Structure formats: C-alpha cells, structure tokens
Amino acid sequence: MDFDGSQKGAGWRWPLILSVIFLNICLPALVLSYGVLWVHSLSNFEAPLWLGFLTPSILMVTYNLTQCWFREAADSWGGSVGYRVLASIGLLFVIGGLILCAFIPYYLQAVVYGVLCGLGSSLISAQVDAVIFETYDSHIIIVRGSGFLGQAVGLSIFPHILTALIDTYGYGHAYVVLAGIMLQSLVAIMFLHIDENVRRPATFSRYKDLSQAYIVYKNEAMDHFYGTELQLHHKNNKSWKNPSDDNVRFDVELNDDDGFILETITPPPSPEEKRRNIFGIDILPQIPEESEESDTEEIVPVTDNNKKRLSVAIKRLSTLGDSIDGCITHQVRKDSQPKGETNDSNASTEFFEVKYDTITPMTDIQTEKLLNTFSFRCQSAYRSVKRKLWIPSYRMYRIKRRLTYLLYSINDTFIKPLTRSLSCAKFYPALLLSFSRLSLLTICLVLLPMLASEVQPKISILEMNFLMTLHGFTWICFLLCTPWLAQTPKRNYKYVTIFGLLVSTASAFVLAADNNHDSYSIGCVIAGFGYGAVTSCWEGTVQDYVGARKWPKVHSALETLSATLLAVFVAGISFVVEKENGLKLVMFILGITLAVITILWVVIGAVSIYLTKVKSLRLHKKSLFRKEQVDL
Which chain regions cross the lipid bilayer (predicted)? Predict the structure, then answer.
C-alpha cells in the first residue's frame, strides 16, 4: 500500500489522540502534583523535609534510567498487541506502588513510590511514543503538543483531587482511591495500537539503516529500493493472456478525478530469463524434478502443482519401500549359510557358526551384578565429574549466553553511547539543558506548595491549589503556540528555549525572595510560561544542536547522565532543606544554576545568529560590491 495514500486514509485517528491526552493527564501528575501529598504527609506524620524532597527525584531518576531499555522493548515487542500488553504491565507497576504506599511506613514510601511509579510511567511513556512515531509523520509535533496539554491539565486539576481524597478518606486510604483513578487509564491503553493497513513503511523507521537490510528478506517496500532484483507482482490482482508473451498489457481503472488511469502490468519472466538479487548473484530458474521409477515418465506440468507433486511423492516412496524390502529379503547371513556355499561379496572362507545353544543369555541379575561392581561405579563417577567439568549442561550454557547478552546490551545502551557522547563538545550544553528541565520538574514544582506555607500571611491549602492551577493555566497558554511551533524550523527552537530559560530563572529568584501573596502569585504565573517553553522545545533544540545523525546515539546517554546529575544535585541540596529558610535557599541555588545554563545558551544563540545572519549578510554585500566593480 502506498504511504501517501495510507496517510490520507489514516487521518488524525482521534481515539488515539484522546487516549494520549488522557494518559498524559493521569500519569505525569504523580510527580507534578507530589508537592500536595508532601504537604499533607508533613501535617499528618511530621515527616522530615528531605524525605519528601527526594521522592520525586527518585521517580525521575528511575524514569530516565529505564527509558532507553523500555524504548528498545517497545520497538522489539510492539505490534498490534505488544504495545498494549507492555503498557498494561506498566500500569500494574503504578497501581501496585500506590497500593503499597497505603500499608507501609511513611519512611519507605519514598522508595516504593519513586521506583515502582517511575518504572510504570517509563514503560507506558515508551509505548505511547512508539505508537505516535509509527502512526504520525507530519502531525507528530501537534500530537506531542496535545500530550503536553494533557500534562498541563493534570497539573491544574490533580491538586484539588488529591486534597479532596485526603480530606474524605484520610492520607493512607487516599493512595488506594488514587490507584483506582489510575486504573481508568486501562481504557486509554487499549487504543494504543497501530493500524497495519496504514502503517508507515520501514524506510521511515528510526532505525532506517538496519531496517533496509532486513526488509529485503521479507519482500517489503521493494519499491523504495533501486537494484537489479526483479520486482515481484501480486498475481491475484493481475492477469495476462499468455505467460510467454513479452508484450505489456494495460488495464483501465476508473477514477473520480481524472476519469481513468492506465496501470502497467508486467508479465512474469520466462524461466530462461536471468535474474539477479540485490547482491548481484544470478538466480537460476527452477528445474523440474524427475521421478526415480522410470526415465520415460512424463514431466509434471507446472500448472498441476498439488495433485501431481503428491502423486510423484507417493510413487517415490513406494519405490523406495520396495527397494528396502528387497534388501531385507535377499540379505544372507554368514552364520546361516550351508556347508560348501560361499558369499560372493567376501573372499574369506572361514566362518564361525553361532548357535543359541552355545550362548548364555544375559539375565537381569547378571546385569545388576555388573552395574554394582566397584570398577563400574568408579568409571561412571569419573565420567560424571569429567562431564560436569568439561561438558557443561545446557542450562549453564543458557545462563552464560544470557549473561553475555546482558553485558552486550549494557555496552550498547550505556557505555558505547556514553564514550561517544563525552567525546563530543556539543554534548555538554545539551546535558545542561536536559538537567535544567528535570530540575524545574522535580524541584521547582515540588517546592511550590511548601513555599506557600512560609508566605506571610500563610496561604491556605485551597488557595495554594488554585495557584497551582494558575501555573498549569499559564502553561496551557503557552501551548496554544504549538501550531506555530509545528511550522517553525528546528533551528529556531533554540531561541524559544532561551526565552523559557530566562523566564524560569526569573521565576526562581522571585519565588526565593517572596514574602507576600502577590510575589508568590507572580512567581507561579511566570514559572508556568518558562516551564512550558523549556518542556516543549528542549528536545528539538538539542536535536538541531548536536545534529540529526548524532541524536539517536546521544539520546540515551543524555537521559542517563542528566538523571545521574539530578540525583547528585538533589542529594547535595537536601542537606540545606532542614535549615532555617532552607526552602528559599534551595530556590536561590536553583536560580543560580539556571542562570549559568541560561548564559551559556545565550552565547550559543548569539553565535548562531552571527553565523547565520550577520556573516552571511556580509558575504552577500561583498559579492554584490565585487559584481558592481566588474560591471564598471
């Protein structure tokens, strides 16, 4: 099926888009709205500040460290059912983690909530990204923008939902009800499948170099290759007058737009025609098999395939059976020959007559005595030890093979991309940009509810939830620019990202210095704009900055190293949280870190403007001046 036609027939697939939006509303809220749960846990159990501060960081570190593994699992185990099965398993991880948090002590909730919910969210996110990539091509930015819209909506409504659950059912049972809410995502997971009729060909895969060599053996998408291999045709939809006719036949099909279309149909090649595969090796024509019964037997026609081949096979089997019977019946044993007769096949005339009277049969008692002898036991023990030492069992072979496969997977997933990325100078600014996004997600958003408790006069929980909703609403306001971003070249994404970093840095300093209700509200508003800009454009910025070819190699290393850097950063500033005004000090440290990253990317943006605009304009003016001089 042609790809263009399949894209037109596929359309937007609204059920899939709605399922992606719903999954992004529910699952990212586990880390976006964790600050609300943290506030209630402090009021109920008087838990330490550093414990709640580490929980979203553990979730994001687990999420980023497992994304590369689950992305490979999505590509390997996908299909019509695989995406939904893996996403359902991820949902079970999330629900299991939330239910366990209701029955374990509060000091263990950080690890269980972070690890299990991070694993489940990572597994579901990998399936969603794989389905989106395989389904959409030109609309992929709009669909991913719709996913970010769902995250903003989840940030707006889930603080109110969590507060109502805790007030109604209590802190412990609120986790169980929240798990029931997450269970409703199973309906959206059932829409995560790819329509095989409109699926993109393998040439559009993210692993294009590997897939081109593989699909040749599956005889897929042969129209996208250029070689000496003869193209295959579907014989059910085509017909010809004579297979040996070399002329080309045309079929007329009606069309609503042009009236008719002339479709060229190529007759099948003759057996004498030479063909070559993609490697340049000649493909020989098939030679019909002859029967072994007689040389005068008629050759089986090609047209009568099933009946004739079956009859020839039966005849060959019967002939072979007669031959075996003849060999058995005409066989002569040496010990049964009469005296005076000799065997022509052997010149020896000495025979040893064997009769059952001269042979004592081996009984079970004698066999048991033989097996119980000391020498036999020693030999069997020696052979058993030798077999275990030198000939390991198949189970040990399987264990070694799986261990080798795991080591190669770790090398291909972590070590090799890491060594390649660290040798690239452009990787380090991209790493800092990814770290800034994670720090805004796990530090700034989590500290917002706690900062509301230190404002004078103190802000109530209901008003705090409203300000969190205001943060999500400003994020939605920025996402209205998604259609414009879809038409914007990726080389201009860096300017939007720099704008987001500037606004986020300003919001961090405003929240660090807030002493009243107004400054806190302004900080929430501008933080929503900055976080929306950084989240929407950071990936396109990094992809354009490091290059489209290096992006698949850099992507996994970028995720793992940014998660490791976040873990180290959060572990370092967790000692500051317990001090007096520790929350504002943490926001101030975050503002300084974002300021350094912003200055670096401002320099990168200025160099890009100079190379693309100013320098090219000067060269254009010089060329015009030289042209004028030549004309004069």
Answer: 12-37, 49-70, 82-105, 111-133, 145-166, 172-192, 430-452, 464-486, 493-513, 519-538, 558-577, 583-612
Residue 33 β-bridge partners? none
pLDDT for 310-343, tens place per residue? 777 777 776 766 666 565 555 554 444 555 555 4
Task: Answer whether 0.85 is exceeded by the pTM.
Answer: no
Task: For residue 26, give both structure tokens.
Answer: 């529910």
Give the lowest-confidence range in 137-146, 220-229, 448-457, 535-544: 220-229
What span, in angstroms and rounded, lies between the C-alpha atoms of 374 and 405? 45
Q: Based on C-alpha coordinates, what's the Rg of the chain?
A: 37
Do residues 334 and 343 make contact, with C-beta atoms less than 8 angstroms apart?
yes
Taking only the tens place, the pLDDT of each residue in 589-603 is 999 999 999 999 999
Residue carrying structure tokens 């096979």 = 313
Distance of CA 350 to the CA centre of its chain: 77
* Residue 146 near residue 93, CB atoms below 8 Å: no
From residue 415, give the alpha-carbon distance in Å to each of 410, 421, 426: 7, 10, 18
pLDDT in tens, 377-413: 777 777 777 766 665 566 677 778 888 888 888 888 7
pLDDT of residue 483: 84
Q: Please, are residues 248 and 233 in contact by the beta-carbon 8 Å criterion? A: no
Q: What domains, with CATH codes, occur in the chain?
A: 1-200 (1.20.1250.20), 425-632 (1.20.1250.20)
Residue 47 DSSP symbol: -
411-444: string of b/e by CB count within 10 Å (b at 16+)?
eebbeebbeebeeeeebebbbbbbbbbbbbbbbb
Q: Nearest CA to 426 among 613, 207, 601?
A: 601
Helix (H) or strand (E) holding 475: helix 461-479
Cβ contact 561:438 at 8 Å: no
Q: pLDDT tens digits, residue range 247-271?
A: 444 444 444 444 444 444 444 554 4
Q: Would you put residue 79 in left (φ > 0), alpha (ψ -120 to 50) or beta? A: left
Tell me what the pLDDT averaged over the chain comes to: 75
Tokens of 388: 């275990």
**Rounded Cα–Cα distance for residues 475 and 478 (Å):** 5
Distance of CA 132 to the CA centre of its chain: 11
**From CA 533, how far away is CA 478, in angstroms rounded?**
7
Give the three-state DSSP class for 273. coil
Tokens read off for 464: 């705090």
The residue with tokens 């025609």 is: 273
Percent of the chain with pLDDT over 90: 22
Better-scored residue on pLDDT, 460 or 324: 460
Of the candidates 557, 336, 560, 565, which has an alpha carbon nearest to the alpha carbon of residue 443?
Answer: 565
State how far the Cα of 520 lies from the Cα of 282, in Å rounded to an integer. 76
Amino acid 105: pLDDT:
85
Total Cβ atoms within 10 A of residue 281: 10
Whole-angstrom distance, CA of residue 239 vs CA of residue 256 = 24
Among 147, 153, 60, smallest CA distance to 468 is for 153
- Token readout for 417 is 């991309």
Q: Which two tokens stand for residue 380?
A: 């069997």
Assess whether pLDDT exceeds 90 at residue 62: yes
Which residues make beta-bridge pairs with 275? 283
